[in-house]
TrEMBL record:
SUPFAM superfamilies for the chain: Metallo-dependent phosphatases
Protein name as annotated: Metallo-dependent phosphatase
Residue segments, region Disordered: 266-291
PANTHER family to which the protein is assigned, alphabetical: METALLOPHOSPHOESTERASE DOMAIN-CONTAINING PROTEIN, PHOSPHATASE DCR2-RELATED-RELATED
Organism: Polyporus arcularius HHB13444
Biased composition (Polar residues): 280-289
Keywords: Signal
InterPro entries referenced in this protein's UniProt entry, alphabetically: Calcineurin-like_PHP, Metallo-depent_PP-like
Pfam families: Metallophos
GO cellular component, one term: cytoplasm
GO molecular function: hydrolase activity, acting on ester bonds
């Protein structure tokens, strides 16, 4: 009740708010937490272009900072920076996502590990392209953490939209990179037409002398954060299905359910490289019932509460590029393209990006997505809409 009044006061010009909408069943004081619905008051609003399109380019698994003790390592970072400059100059995206494993943290030194972030973001700073990051298992190591990378990125990249989750949803401190970014049809709009969601799947190793491996799935507290956030968005802006608000989600380690998709890929319908056999460690950890991952609370909440979800995009498995519809939630999943010259690779995989082009702010019009290689070759194009397998 108090919560409903609070929202009504904060958003007096909005829809009348039925009490049922804020009855969260959260079973805790979390339902009283306020989610900031204008999270970037000091940054330019992200908007669709005048022709109604919005283009996202995803760099994944850049793996900066490998083998700083020999010539090979630093050369890979030069190659990755060249790839970023080439792709950004020709693609001219409206937004860039760095989808995890920005840095090979196990090769870094305590005293200067996050200075690698300066190198990663340099092409984005130079070309003034707004972007944000998810973080991967290699970004949590004894000499670096997701939180440290986020702090550094915000200090050195004026157009970073990366944020940190509230402390109760930060995965015990190892998964702070959970947040959302609004995209408006035009800058003066009251509410966004598209929400880009970013989730922290943790993983890697803890800091300190006695480092232990960290949970490699999105923490279950994030399920509560999703429910709370969507409920407040709905109260302020109207429900996504009624007002026409779309969503797209990014998480470094693929959801556990993706593991079962690989056996039934059809290379015509689900095009793209399929060279990395998924197994233990390839997706978010399995639970006791292995058909359900430990990410089940997150996965269920995402699919239950975020309506008009165009898809979920992950990196982590460098030899996979394919998309496939996940039947249990009826949601499209896509792998990124391995972008970095660091990180494991194999003959013929090459390096590139995934492009995602929204063709309209209307969520009924699904985005088009494809892989673009460094040399400009493109393949594995699909439309992420209801006609997709
Ligand atoms: C962390 O950094 C310290 C100090 O530079 C270095 O001695 C150590 O080898 C690094 N540890 C790891 C696990 O890379
Ligand atoms: C960090 O320091 C180490 C050890 O002095 C050096 O080899 C490495 O190149 C430095 N890395 C960065 C990113 O400055
Ligand atoms: C790490 O483990 C060693 C051996 O068990 C122990 O002596 C030491 O105190 C531990 N260090 C920390 C920082 O916990
Ligand atoms: C694969 O997809 C194509 C195109 O939709 C279809 O014609 C073909 O029958 C599918 N193959 C299998 C084995 O399902």
């Amino acid at each position: 009740m108090i919560y409903a009044l609070l929202i009504a006061v904060l958003a007096p010009h909005c829809w009348a708010i039925p009490l049922a909408q804020v009855d969260l069943h959260l079973g805790s004081s979390r339902s009283l937490e306020t989610i900031e619905l204008n999270p970037y008051p000091d940054k330019p609003r992200l908007t669709f272009r005048h022709d109604g399109t919005f283009k996202v380019t995803v760099f994944s698994d850049l793996h900066y900072g490998e083998n700083p003790w020999d010539d090979w390592g630093p050369q890979q970072d030069v190659n990755s920076a060249n790839l970023m400059n080439t792709v950004l100059t020709s693609e001219q995206p409206d937004y860039v996502v760095l989808n995890g494993d920005l840095i090979t943290g196990e090769n870094t030194f305590r005293e200067n590990s996050t200075t690698l972030i300066d190198e990663v973001v340099a092409p984005l700073n130079k070309l003034k392209i707004p972007f944000s990051s998810t973080h991967g298992n290699h970004d949590n190591e004894p000499n670096i953490t997701h939180a440290e990378e986020i702090r550094r990125e915000l200090r050195v990249a004026p157009l970073s939209y990366t944020r940190a989750a509230p402390a109760w949803a930060d995965g015990q401190g190892y998964g702070p990179g959970t947040y959302w970014v609004p995209v408006y049809k035009k800058a003066s709009d009251h509410s966004p037409s598209l929400i880009l969601w970013f989730f922290d799947s943790r993983g890697g190793f803890s800091e300190g002398a006695n480092s232990t491996s960290l949970p490699d799935w999105v923490d279950e507290a994030v399920a509560t954060w999703i429910e709370l956030t969507v409920s407040q968005m709905n109260a302020a802006w109207g429900p996504a299905d009624r007002v026409g608000r779309g969503s797209l989600a990014f998480v470094h380690i693929p959801p556990h359910v993706v593991q079962d998709l690989q056996a039934n890929l059809n290379s015509t319908q689900d095009p793209g490289l399929n060279d990395d056999e998924l197994g233990s460690g390839s997706t978010q950890a399995s639970g006791e019932d292995t058909s359900l991952g430990k990410d089940a609370p997150f996965w269920d909440a995402l699919n239950a509460h975020v309506l008009n979800l165009h898809g979920v995009i992950s990196g982590h498995d460098h030899g996979n590029e394919w998309c496939k519809r996940e039947p249990s939630k009826n949601v499209i999943f896509c792998f990124d393209k391995h972008s970095g010259y660091g990180g494991y690779s194999s003959t013929g995989w090459g390096h590139g990006v995934r492009n995602i082009v929204f063709r309209s702010p209307n969520p009924k019009v699904g985005p088009e997505t494809w892989i673009r290689m460094e040399d400009g070759e493109t393949h594995a194009r699909i439309i992420m809409d209801s006609s997709y397998n």
